[in-house]
Amino acid sequence: MSTPFEPEYSASGPVPGGRPGRKLGPIATGVSSTHRAWLEPTRDRYLASGLTLAEMSGRVPLAKSKLSELMRGVGLYPRWELLEGIAGVLQMPVWPLQRLWRQAALDAQKSREWIERSAGSPPVTTSAVVPPLEHGAFRETVEDAYRRYCRVFLFDDPCEAAVADTFDLLWLSWNGALASPDMRHYAWKILRATVMAKTPHVDGRPDLGHAAFDTVALRTMTDVAAGMAQMAESLELFKAISRLPEVPLDVVVLRSLCGFTPEETSGLLGLSKPTVQSSERYAERFLDNIFDPPDTEGPTE
């Protein structure tokens, strides 16, 4: 999964680019989206810390080579006590990190017994369990809208997981969110990346077949033949919508499929209202050219 985290550099701390020793390699190919969900913000926090792998290794019970493997998603899936030690050094909130770790462990085919034995009791300190007050207030404001957007792409259970992951990831990178030009846009990028990571793709584009089958027209159709025709038309339309660039696609989903106003859409995306309106016009022209292409043959006699 690709997420929009920015390293949170300290004005008084060392710059990561200047740290001695071998640089941390990239995340290995084949690492699952759920594994990336906790690995990417952990790497970002490490890169922002200015610490070297040797210094990190001196603070957690893990050899430098094994720490490098953990930070790249290489080798065996890590036990929680190792990640918890890293989180303590990097001052990361433990509760959302452990929830994401548990989910990825299940995807890695780890048994529930192994997970519980590794994780032990859930963290119980107030600082670990309770997110910042501003985070809770923001979540209360946008959670329902995030869920409505998500359900265009995913069924109920994956949708709920995607929304929960989004707010966990936002919690893990809360300082970066507050420091960003627009926290709403920062949060939306996390939501979108999380949803897209869980959404099936066809030819590199999100599969909107789920949304096509859930249109009001299909749900209320009583004539079988008309219903089949409407289904085919809807599938073609949603296939075309999936080809839109990122922002016009999100605007179409929020405006046409979720029913949000331009003002509400602007607030959710963290983009100006003129940007939303221009994106909607772009989408309309794009779809018109597909379903009603202009006549380029000129007048006929």
CATH architecture of the largest domain: Orthogonal Bundle
**Helix vs. strand class:** mainly alpha
**Alpha-carbon distance between the two ends:** 56 Å
Mean pLDDT, as a whole number? 84
How can the largest sheet be summarized?
2 strands, antiparallel
Specify the CATH class of the largest domain: Mainly Alpha
As for the number of domains, it is 3
Helical amount: 55-70%
Counting DSSP H or I runs of 4 or more residues, the number of helices is 17
Which stretches are poorly predicted, pLDDT < 50 over at least 5 residues? 1-18, 123-127, 216-224
Order of helices and strands: HHHHHHHHHHHEEHHHHHH
Radius of gyration: 23 Å
- Give me the CATH fold name of the largest domain: 434 Repressor (Amino-terminal Domain)
What is the number of strand segments? 2
Q: What's the overall geometry?
A: elongated
Order of strands, main sheet, comes to 1-2
As a percent range, the share of strand residues is under 5%
Give me the secondary-structure topology.
Layout: H1 33-49, H2 53-59, H3 64-72, H4 80-90, H5 94-107, H6 112-119, H7 126-129, H8 133-150, H9 156-172, H10 174-179, H11 183-198, E1 201-202, E2 205-206, H12 209-212, H13 216-219, H14 224-241, H15 246-257, H16 262-269, H17 273-291
Antiparallel strand pairs: 1-2
Report what the structure shows.
With 301 residues, the protein is mainly alpha-helical. It has helices at 33-49, 53-59, 64-72, 80-90, 94-107, 112-119, 126-129, 133-150, 156-172, 174-179, 183-198, 209-212, 216-219, 224-241, 246-257, 262-269, 273-291; strands spanning 201-202, 205-206. The protein has a two-stranded antiparallel sheet with strand order 1-2. A hairpin with a 2-residue loop joins β1 and β2 (205-206). The longest helix is centred in the last third of the chain and has 19 residues, at 273-291. It is elongated, with a radius of gyration of 23 Å. Residues 1-18, 123-127 and 216-224 have low confidence and may be disordered.
